[in-house]
Amino acid sequence: MKLLKNFKGGVHPNYEKQHSEDKPIQVLPAPEVVVMPLQQHVGAPCDPVVKKGDQVLMGQVIGESSYAISAPVHSSVSGTVLAVEPRPSVTGRSVMSVVIQNDGQDTPIEEQQNPILKSSDPNQRIDVDGNLIRQAINAAGVVGLGGGAFPTAVKVTPPDTSHIEYLLINGSECEPYLTADQRVMEEYPDKVILGAKLLAKAAGAEKIIIAIESNKPEAIKILEKYAVPNEIEVITVVTKYPAGGERMLIKAVLNREVPSGGYPHEVGVLVHNVSTAWAVAETCLTGRPLIERVITVTGSGIKEPGNYLVRIGTPFKNIVEAAGGFNGQPERVLCGGPMMGLAQFNLDVPVVKATSGVLILTEKEAQKYEPLPCIKCARCVDVCPVYLMPLKLEAFAMNEMWEQAEEYGAMDCIECGCCTYICPSKRYLVHYIRLAKQEIIAARGKN
Amino acid sequence: MEETRFKISPSPHIRDEDSTQNIMLTVVVALLPVWIAATYFFGFDSIRLVVLSSLSAIITEAICQKLRKRPVTVWDGSALITGMLLGLSVPPTLPSWMIVFGAAVAIIVGKQLFGGLGGNPFNPALVGRAILVISFPSPMSKWTIDGITTATPLMESAGNFAYHELFFGNIAGSIGETSAFAILLGGIFMYYRGVLDYRMPVSFLGTVAILSILLGQDPIFQILSGSLLFAAIFMASDLVTTPVTPKGRWIFGIGAGVILTVIRTWGSLPEGVTYSILLMNAATPLINRYTRPRIYGRGVKANG
After folding, report:
1. Spatial separation of the C-alpha atoms in residues B79 and B83, rounded to whole Å
2. Same domain, yes or no, for A144 and A197?
3. What is the pLDDT of residue B1?
4. In terms of C-beta density within 10 A (0-12 exposed, 13-18 middle, 19 or more buried), how is residue B270 classed?
5. Is residue A219 in a domain?
6. Chain B 119-138, residues with CB within 8 Å of chain A CB atoms
């Protein structure tokens, strides 16, 4: 047996995939009201292009920006605009949002009748021009669905000087509990392969590699079947968090390191999530923009964990109801996985493009700990996948020694949370490193 | 459901099950075989010294924390470890009041003056031992076995002792350092539980072995006699006072090995383990600073 592709550092939390990994993707009916935040991506926020009282069609642009790094937002239903106002978003901040009353008709906008791809055969040669693919991705508002939310069209347009050798399709899904990517790979393997080929064509990538964690043998088996005729390699990586981190995956699969502060294209690599590949294929086949995605609803705090195809903008409330409601008293409601997910204080927030799951944790799963003094056991140093010394960074941040924090590499932190997870003294290491990063960025702004 | 408000907290929302108390408990359990062996060879004195030392350390810690108006955290087990380590590293004939004094000083000077757990630069048990040696040189070097006072093996020539006696412990010395077998058992347990980094004992013992071969000494005798093995496994591996970087841990062990060999070979003290570790404790912040791991993506070229 070949050795699994590995990387240094990382942790082995309980994966808890059993709640939902065998549950087929179910279509969740569109809710009566959707809330569409106008910033669901990294980059410039969109300006609303509709106003209260307007009639909108499904797939119609409701927000766009003239900036290069941005992604348009489309209505996920047809109906009437109830309001254009700031609404709480999953990040905890208020974001300008378009609230739409669903008329239940799902009347599509006309433009979406122009798919750029005629055939859905995954083995076809992609003859469409790369530029056309990039335009289609951009117009569809596709962003990194793995959680990064970086506009995909921008990512597949690297500077002219760089040469893309590998397109890595990220099927690691290393966050515990989440199974959306796994189900997408198992149920839509043809679309994943097609999307990968479209992305490779758009970026001019020579080879495609699909990387999957070893705890998803079914997905590996299915994708291998589809990959072989397309000369795509499926590589099994170690089941370890954060194997799906872009930098860790590149290190594990290709043994290359992305330069500090740089981007993967600088070492000839692009990484895209499997769900992003699926979304790209869907867009190119149907002409429909990104208005729905697969999410996992899971945790011991929900009655019927599962994987659902939901409209962007669906409030968490509707999702919890669809999954049978709470199972007992929920201790924590998260957008995303338990390692990097964002805690929500109510269920009014909507699913956005980068929402990979809604996780309901019980008190037993999300225990509260009082931090104890650091005993310098160095477990945080051992698990840090970017080789930092989290205990030092925490101490610098606590003493507001921002310059020293920067010297010790605070800005290289990927905020994966391994240090906080492993700390036997239950210290909030990554939390303080985030604080240091904010202060360092603020200080740079002043100079 | 509208009115529901949930708690928020920063990620990650799940934690590893291991805890600082677990780590301390692991060390305490690892010390038990050593204590049992000590009791087998030295009888009641072993129980007397370890119990008094531990009680003194715990009570002193509680009083200090009360005086400092800090939460009393003696349940974390760290004071118990200091007490046990000190009790196991003194001769069996040490008077009771001296061990009580030593443990109290270990906690006050070695730990609480620096802010308590995690803040101390020096291993508290070794601070206590160093102060006992300086204050009471004669009782601290009175080695007996079976009621007969002898010199520590290090003061005699190597040929007088059979390896198996050194290994299983039927020799004179501090009560915890005589049975290499019991010490190794504890070390293996700590390693298995992820509390002991192999780098420190390996580099410490390895350095001593290599240097003693170079100096024409018997390396096995050098390792098995005196408190080297006990200190290499239980004191050089103390988390708080040793480097946090993998490279730094190698350097720590090598440095301690060099200092120890120098003291044993040319110094006027019969044993230098205490000082070799304390000196390297002092160097630890510097070692940490200069052995920082290379950060991911630093020093790599684009388009590689």
Report:
1. 6
2. yes
3. 46
4. middle
5. yes
6. 119
Predicted interface score ipTM higher than 0.95: no
State whether A389 and B116 contact (CB < 8 Å): no
Q: B14, A421: Cβ pair inside 8 Å?
A: yes
Question: Within this chain, do residues A175 and A260 fall inside the same structural domain, yes or no?
Answer: yes
Put simply, the chain B residues between 205 and 244 with a CB less than 8 A from any chain A CB are: 239-240, 242, 244
Domains of chain B: 20-290 (1.10.3430)
At A194, which CATH number?
3.40.50.11540
Contact between residue B203 and residue B66 where contact means Cβ atoms under 8 Å apart: no
| Spatial distance between the Cα atoms of A286 and A301, rounded to a whole number of angstroms | 37
Tell whether the torsion through CA atoms of B105, B109, B110 and B114 is positive or negative.
Answer: positive
> B residues 10-29 near A, CB within 8 Å?
10-16, 18-20, 22-23
For residue A398, which residues of chain B lie inside 8 Å, CB to CB? none
Which 3 state secondary structure label does DSSP give B150?
strand
Q: Which domain holds residue A226?
A: 115-286
Say which amino acid occupies B302.
A
A138/chain B closest Cα distance in angstroms: 27
How far is Cα A283 from Cα A277, in angstroms, rounded to an integer? Answer: 10
- Report the pLDDT value the prediction gives residue B143, as an integer from 0 to 100: 66
Residue B146 has pLDDT above 90, yes or no: no
pLDDT band at B3 (very low <50, low <70, confident <90, very high): low
Task: Please tell me whether residues A270 and A155 are part of one structural domain.
Answer: yes
* CA pair distance A121, A191, nearest whole angstrom: 9
What number is the average pLDDT over the span B272-277? 91
**A257 & A310 share domain:** no
- Per-residue pLDDT tens listing for chain A (447 residues): 467 899 999 999 999 999 999 999 999 999 999 999 999 988 899 999 999 999 999 999 999 998 988 999 999 999 999 999 999 999 888 999 999 999 999 998 876 557 888 888 888 888 888 889 999 999 999 999 988 889 998 888 877 767 899 999 999 999 999 999 999 999 999 999 999 999 999 998 999 999 999 999 999 999 999 988 888 999 999 999 999 999 999 999 999 999 999 999 999 999 999 999 999 999 999 989 999 999 999 999 999 999 999 999 999 999 999 999 999 889 999 999 999 999 999 899 999 999 999 999 998 888 888 899 999 999 999 999 999 999 999 999 999 999 999 999 999 999 999 999 999 999 999 999 999 999 999 998 887
Q: Is residue A1 part of a domain?
A: no
**Is A338 an interface residue toward B (CB < 8 Å)?**
yes
Residue A401 to chain B, least CA–CA distance (Å): 16
Residue A235 belongs to some domain of the structure: yes
> If you measure CA to CA, which chain B residue comes closest to A258?
B297
Proportion of chain A in helix, strand, coil states, percent, rounded to 5: 30, 20, 50
Q: What CATH number is attached to the domain comprising A356?
A: 3.10.20.600
Query: Is the model's pLDDT at B169 over the cut of 70?
Result: no
A397 SS3 class: helix
Q: Is the pLDDT of residue B140 over 90?
A: no
Q: Is residue A210 part of a domain?
A: yes
- Domain co-membership, A181 together with A120: yes
Domain count for chain A, please give it.
3
List strands edge to edge, sheet with A342-344: A25-27, A306-311, A292-298, A357-361, A332-335, A342-344
Q: How far apart are CA A167 and CA A152, in angstroms?
A: 13
Residues A107, A149, single domain; the answer is: no
CA distance A394 to chain B (A): 14
Contact B296 A385 (CB under 8 A): yes
Contact A412 B297 (CB under 8 A): yes
Q: Are A262 and A250 in contact (CB under 8 A)?
A: no
